Amino acid sequence: MRALFGGRAKHDYLSDALTLLNGWTREGEQIRRTLVIDDTQHAALTERVKVVADALHLRPEISRRADHTQIRVGHSNSPLSEGEVLLAARIEDAYRAVAEPDEGRPT
């Protein structure tokens, strides 16, 4: 099972996974996402991302500029890992939770 993630297969797997992450763009060995959210949503997103990132032992870069939040995952000096792609997917989950907090709740 480990061989699935080695060499060329790993690259293909990560490329396929990245195509499922709408809004994320690849820049070399990093992936980036810009979200238009307010300050309260940014704070909530940052807290949720911190919990997941700590569990995965990863450190995304999260910055706030004007009315948007920018997130970078990965390092410029090492290939993108499965964990970093997983973190991006979890960030998407957290973004949906803070941007659409009333969806799925009973009224």
From TrEMBL:
Pfam families (alphabetical): Pterin_4a
SUPFAM superfamilies, per the entry: PCD-like
Catalytic activity: (4aS,6R)-4a-hydroxy-L-erythro-5,6,7,8-tetrahydrobiopterin = (6R)-L-erythro-6,7-dihydrobiopterin + H2O
Gene3D superfamilies in the cross-refs: Transcriptional coactivator/pterin dehydratase
Entries under InterPro entries matching the protein: PCD_sf, Pterin_deHydtase
Keywords linked to the UniProt accession: Lyase
EC number from the UniProt entry: 4.2.1.96
Family indicated by similarity: Belongs to the pterin-4-alpha-carbinolamine dehydratase family.
Name by which UniProt lists this protein: Putative pterin-4-alpha-carbinolamine dehydratase
Organism: Micromonospora fiedleri
Upper taxonomic lineage: Bacteria, Bacillati, Actinomycetota, Actinomycetes, Micromonosporales
